[in-house]
Every structure is written in structure tokens, then in C-alpha cells.
Design a protein that fits this description.
The protein is of the alpha+beta class and 260 residues long. Helices cover 46% and strands 20% of the residues. The strands form two sheets. A five-stranded antiparallel beta sheet has the order 1-8-3-6-9, covered by helices on one side. The protein has a four-stranded antiparallel beta sheet with strand order 2-7-4-5, with no helix packed on it. The radius of gyration is 19 Å and the shape is globular. The two termini are 33 Å apart.
Length: 260
């Protein structure tokens, strides 16, 4: 992928729910007028695009280049939600579609959700915020996999423990370092290299990501979502949610419903 490009515009940002395309096989025939970068929050499918076979699953990023569409077929095994950003650049990023699998629970998924929330809000300055976030997404993609596998294996016990307990336990960096048998500074260094964030921010991102999913379901009050996301204080939850998404939980619900 070309590493030097300018984003010249974002055409639209959409959230595709897992029930919007109930058929197991979907065929698209229109020419792609924009590049597309898509974050898949769940599901599993095989995409056939201009001779490329792309395997898509949870926490996968898919990129499709603008231009002639000779073949574009999606065969779904499991339904899942995704956010699709349609954008243009001054030079081609690449002529071929590609996926990045096993991207893990970095803050990229949260950035996609924040980009979508800002886009549908249409508040003053929203367009420039979205452009900035899209640049940040590409920067994080570049960074997040640049760590040797043997170093990543050192922090796997910590990531596993976090993902199993972030909703129910208060997790300290010291404890995470202990279960990895490494020092706290080295744990933080490896987290930054792998996820472009600290362990504590990693935990917060998971909580906000989980809360966003619950809010989109529409089954719970904001207070219930706060409790189910591991927050004892509704005020603190609302403040932290706005800090990470740009809008309050109530605004998120309103914007999401109005965009459907």
C-alpha cells in the first residue's frame, strides 16, 4: 500500500447492521466510485473481488480500491456489523483489495465508531474531525503490527486476562506485569508498540467499545449500560464515553437511531 497519500475527501460513512443483508450471497455490480475501508466487528465471510479471495472475520479491516468492479461477491457464513468509510485520495493507495486479519482489540475499532458518530452528528467541524480520524486509523494500522511475535507472546497473558475480566475487575498494571513475568515499564513499552496505547487505555477502550455495542442494541438505559460496562458511576461513565467518542451516550443513541 502506498505510504504517502493525501485524503482528498470522505463521501460517506455508514454502519451496516448484521441483519441488513439477510441473504447468504450478495453480488455487487456497480463501479466503485470511492475507496472503501471497512472495519468488521463480527461475522465471517469470504469476499471475491476482482480475482482476489479475501477472508473476513471479527476484527478484520477490509480495503477495496475505487474503479472498475469486474467481480464483487460476498458469501456469508455468519452475519456481523461493520462500519464502511468511502473516501478518495490524491494518488492510488493500491490497485488490489486486501484484508488485515487478527488486528486484535486495538483502539482502531473505537476510532471507526467515533468517526461514524461524528459523521452522523454533522456538528460544526465534523468533516475535519473525520478526516483527522481517518488519518489516525491509517497511522495505527501501520504501527500496530510492528512488533516481533516473540515480544507479543510476552504480553499475551495480560491481553487474555484483560479481555476475560475488564468488565468485572479492577485491573492494575502491576498485576498484568506480574502475570507476564516482566517489569511494568517493559509491559507498557510492548503495549505501545503493539496497540499504540497504554494497558490502562487499552482497558478503557474495551469498556467504551462494549458500551457502544450495548447502546446500539437499544435494550438498556444509559445507567444500565454503565453498570454492564464495569462503571460504578454514571457520571464518570458519561464523561469518559464522551472523551473517547466525542458525544455523550444519550447523543450516541439519538444519532445512531436517526442514521438507520
Amino acid at each position: 500500500m502506498n505510504q504517502e497519500f493525501i485524503i482528498t475527501g470522505i463521501d460517506r460513512v455508514i454502519l451496516v447492521g448484521k441483519n441488513e443483508y439477510p441473504q447468504s450471497t450478495i453480488s455487487f455490480t456497480d463501479q466503485l466510485k470511492s475507496h472503501e475501508i471497512i472495519y468488521h466487528f463480527g461475522g465471517k465471510s469470504t469476499v471475491y473481488f476482482n480475482g482476489k479471495v479475501l477472508k473476513v472475520e471479527k476484527d478484520t479491516i477490509r480495503f477495496l480500491p475505487k474503479g472498475e468492479n469486474r467481480e464483487y461477491i460476498v458469501e456469508k457464513e455468519e452475519n456481523g456489523d461493520c462500519i464502511d468509510v468511502f473516501f478518495d485520495t490524491d494518488v492510488p493507495l493500491t490497485d488490489e483489495a486486501f484484508v488485515i486479519n487478527n488486528i486484535g482489540r486495538t483502539d482502531i475499532g473505537v476510532m471507526f465508531k467515533k468517526l461514524f458518530a461524528i459523521w452522523v452528528s454533522k456538528n460544526e467541524g465534523y468533516y475535519f474531525e473525520c478526516i483527522s480520524l481517518l488519518y489516525k486509523i491509517f497511522a495505527t494500522i501501520r504501527k500496530q503490527n510492528y512488533i516481533p511475535e516473540n515480544q507479543y507472546n510476552l504480553i499475551k497473558p495480560a491481553t487474555k486476562y484483560i479481555e476475560e475480566n475488564f468488565l468485572t475487575k479492577k485491573i492494575s498494571v502491576k498485576y498484568l506485569a506480574d502475570i507476564c513475568n516482566i517489569s511494568e515499564p517493559y509491559l507498557k513499552k510492548l503495549f505501545y508498540k503493539r496497540f499504540a496505547m497504554s494497558p490502562l487505555k487499552y482497558i478503557i477502550q474495551l469498556k467504551i467499545n462494549h458500551a457502544s455495542d450495548l447502546l446500539r442494541l437499544g435494550r438498556y438505559s444509559v445507567g444500565q449500560v454503565a453498570e454492564l460496562s464495569g462503571y460504578e458511576s454514571l457520571y464518570y461513565f458519561s464523561r469518559q464515553f464522551k472523551e473517547y467518542t466525542g458525544i455523550t451516550p444519550s447523543e450516541f443513541i439519538e444519532k445512531y437511531v436517526s442514521s438507520k
